[in-house]
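Final report, results section. Input specification for complex C-07:
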Amino acid sequence: MAKYNFDEIHDRRGTNSIKWDMGPKYMGRDDLLPMWVADMDFKLPDEIIEDIVKSASRGIYGYTDPGEDYIKSLNYWFKTRHGFEVESDWVIVQPGVVFGISIAIRALTEPGDAVMVQQPVYYPFTRTIEQNGRRVVNNELLYTDGGYEIDFEDFEEKIISENVKMFILCSPHNPVGRVWTRDELLKMARICKEHDVYVFADEIHFDFVYSSYTHIPYISLGREFTDRLIIGTSASKTFNMAGLQIANIIIPDPEVREKYRKVNTASGYGQCAITGLYGVMSAYTKGAEWLDEMLEYIEGNLACVRNFLKEKLPKVHLVEPEGTYLIWLDFTELVQDHKELEKLIVDKAHLWLDPGSIFGSRSSLFERVNIACPRLTIVQAMDQLYEAVRSYCDDTM
Ligand SMILES: Cc1ncc(COP(=O)(O)O)c(C=O)c1O
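Structure output:
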């Protein structure tokens, strides 16, 4: 029998939530059902909440640094869930993974250098590269038969011709939902090694894989691939703790780590928040059962969307995800242009999704939807989409 109730609706309005309270600020309206940012609507189990509250209730909030108990909790999680361990001096605690990407770019590349991504991809990658004065090089993922694959020829060709210094890997991939196979990862790792390319492996979604898939941590590919590796991960996605502002940047190579540390110090960042530190320790030691049930629940949400689209909206195509709680919907059979699609989603369906155009220029007829919410919200969103598409089809007939 299920121990946790993921059906429960929590009213998050009035909590300064960017998902639920910032409609007027970001969208100029307050009538949209938010399913955009990667932030879940589930409450953590009591035992984790109690540990966070306990850390806050001491009443003294001085500077805090991760000690050996923190590393022990990371290693417990990494070992039991993903089969690897880290040494304590490899770990640098940061407020977020994107912060870590920015520091890594500054530490390991020069202004004007090329940094490669695989679009369509999580949009802060390109923004962070550009705003640090580096060049974005895109190894566009191939969209064939409704799924995404890596164009390896282009991958290597671009690394050589553009003199790429760093590759930001999204694994599992947001938004296309691929969980890369060992073969795919090894191919990329070999090419990067051959051309001395740093790899920032963003594995923030590593705990979200559907039941027939396995996440392969980049670090498990072999010792020969770790000397230019930076891993970004965090409990913030798995346990919805982004508001606690803590992530782990893991750098096995001492020279790379030293370069990273120098720029991190220059940024002025010091210590992490107490609640974040205790939140991670608690989640990583006590959260496994809750996560397993939650993954099953999300798989149920996915099935609900899949069945609904098949039966009622066959022109909206679900790109079958292998991981993450974000789904990628293809509207190319239904609409011709992205402004029309935005009108349909926002004005007619009253949904707040992430438009495909922000993930890459070839994805303007896609939408990313966050399905980490109670089933009722999924049903409501599908109903709103259905009504909107019906009225759109009536209007355009
Ligand atoms: C691939 C990826 N990396 C990083 C982040 C954000 O991480 P953080 O809030 O730790 O910067 C997200 C959030 O959605 C993400 O999807």
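The domain at 60-286 is CATH 3.40.640.10 (Aspartate Aminotransferase; domain 2). The CA atoms of residues 92 and 261 lie 8 Å apart. This concludes the modelling results for the funded period.
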